[in-house]
Amino acid sequence: MRIERLPLNALRAFAEAAREESFKLAASRLGVTPGAVSRQVKQLEDRLGILLFERHANGVCLNDAGRLLADDIDAGLERIAAGVRAAGERSRSAATLTLSAPPSFTQLWLLPRLAEFESMEGHVEISLDASQALTMPTWQGDGARLAIRYGRGPWPGVRSQHLFGDELFPVCAPSLLSYGPRLSEPADLVNHTLLEVAWCSRQSEAFPGWREWLDAAGVRDIATPIQRRYSLFGLALDQTIAGRGVMLASHPIVADRLASGVLVRPFGADYVLESPFTYELILPITGGAPPTAQRFIDWLIEEARQFCRDQQ
Fold it and tell me: Which CATH number fits the domain that encloses residue 221?
């Protein structure tokens, strides 16, 4: 068997289903039906001659073979991404754009929207670096190296363009409201596992956590609930979607999941904690942007404005 002859759509469907351990969530991310994901995964299993998932009445989960293949595919995608970046840097005939952005923001906010810009600018080569490190932005001929950062200014040595602020509030899976302990007011959180992100800004300022939110909500006299901390929003989000706790969420990170109904806000629009950090587009402090880079900047700023309008 030659791996290059495997159907790419089936590999893509499997990769998404493996990441979510759900055909339904994978279908939502791919814009197809759960049945289509199931058929593509079955096609891949038939081609390989092995089962990759255990099927149960209430869903699916990866087996050992599936987990190994998922790890190999992720490693392959990393190599492909590195190859694309290298090809983009070698190219002199097409416009190039390198964008560095925080991993969870890249995956959960930027990527679902980036296809629109790519459809308008088919000739541009976009390289994404999902990183927290601040790479100095530059204009490079007809290309550019830019960054999106989450934190508090000032940003020395660069120019920053404000995208939007952030607010924090609890989210959970709908199933937790139906089958878990009561969750109708903040004091009820004492009976739930609380998930939060342990993260520090470049100035070593800690990201606000449950303690700050509970204080702001006026809940100061309850026992400390069980808490689990994660280094990335995406990790906490996966656990929240699986119904394993209530997450203190960053609004841009969970906005699309709230819109789709995968997550809900147990207390509605009440009890919001404003974050001291903002999302900023980081640009070179001098010089003018190449045409393609300027169109990307204009597009991104308009996407940020539209996002803010949609959340009002």
Answer: 3.40.190.10
The sign of the CA dihedral 78, 80, 83, 84 is: negative
pLDDT tens track, the chain, 312 positions = 344 455 677 888 888 888 888 888 888 888 888 888 888 888 888 888 889 898 888 888 889 888 888 888 877 767 776 766 665 554 444 568 888 888 888 888 998 898 888 888 767 788 888 877 667 788 876 668 899 998 887 888 889 999 999 999 999 999 998 888 899 999 899 889 999 887 655 555 667 888 889 888 888 766 666 678 887 788 889 999 999 999 999 999 999 999 999 999 999 888 999 988 899 999 998 888 888 889 999 999 999 999 888 876
Collapsed DSSP state (helix, strand, coil) of residue 128: strand
Q: Which residues contact 249 (CB under 8 A, 6 or more apart)?
A: 168, 169, 170, 171, 233, 237, 240, 263
Range of the structural domain that residue 44 is part of: 3-72
Q: Does residue 79 lie in a domain region?
A: no
Count of domains for the chain: 3
- Could you tell me if 267 and 240 lie in one domain? yes
**Whether 144 and 290 share a structural domain:** yes
